[in-house]
Amino acid sequence: MVRQPIPVIIVAGFLGSGKTSLLNHLLRNPQGARIGVVVNDFGQINIDALSVAGQVDSSVSLSNGCLCCAVDASGLDDLLAKLTRPSSDIDVIVIECSGLADPRTMVRMLLGSTNPRLGYGGLVEVVDAAEFDRTRQRHPELDQHLRFADLVLLNKTDRVSDGDRDRLLELVRELADGGPVLPTAHGRLDPALLFDRESVRQRRESARQLTFDDLVGDDCHEHLHAGYQSVEFTADEPVHPRALMRFLDARPAGVYRMKGQVHFGVPGHEQKFTLHTVGDFLRFQRSRWARSEPRRTQLVVIGSGLDRDRIREDLHACLGRPDAADEHSMLDVLKFIRG
Q: Mean pLDDT, to the nearest integer, of 296-302?
């Protein structure tokens, strides 16, 4: 079985946007997960919620400044080492950035990490709907932050009129350049958007192969936020590696995450390939098929404003085997292999 790395989710946003509210919401609703946190200041973090989550002893406080001031990725590795050691039994890590931190620096540091137990869980940018126009004037770099984010939360929508909410959603989606944008109030969202419940179960249960129901998640349909959709795709025919990589290179607007298993069936590459994407981040992992496990592709696409029929059509168009003379058909896939 593939040993899944611990996802590290970066939460960024300017002062007062609602980052701490989001973190407290996740800690109060951990969905069975043990959540490790890295924060700049415990002053506004709900210590009672941390206690409920069992994470008080597995937190790193940076009271002397923002994390992005660390010199290089090895510095970040040192800060996260406590949370990723096996004895901590952590399922997911959330880093709450300082309000003045550059999220792009944070992502580069994380992707440069040499810790094999870490995985990129995405950059979540939180913006204040009530103060968005003024924040943009004070911090014009916000536009770049929105384009770089894997998921944007337009928070505090309960503090604006319906007309302003619709205007801001349209504007933020334009600035996010096709990235998913979710309206929220008080930082509340379904934790399943940020980390996989089945990955948590996988860590808690004895080793076993995941079923397609696991990949979709028991609560995926019932509890995903109304602004989000999921698309499931299953195929017994092998997937053409070049066609799939073209699909992944030009992901449909609004896609936040893709997960599942892929069967390429290319000679020399008959293993199971587990796919994980967050925003533009892409990773494959190879593992063996179980003896009785059918060789098939099973994928779940999660995002906002998705054209479900078009996504299924595009994925169906990826089916097929490469020409026998194409000896390098797997080359682009292998570039994104981990493990």
A: 93
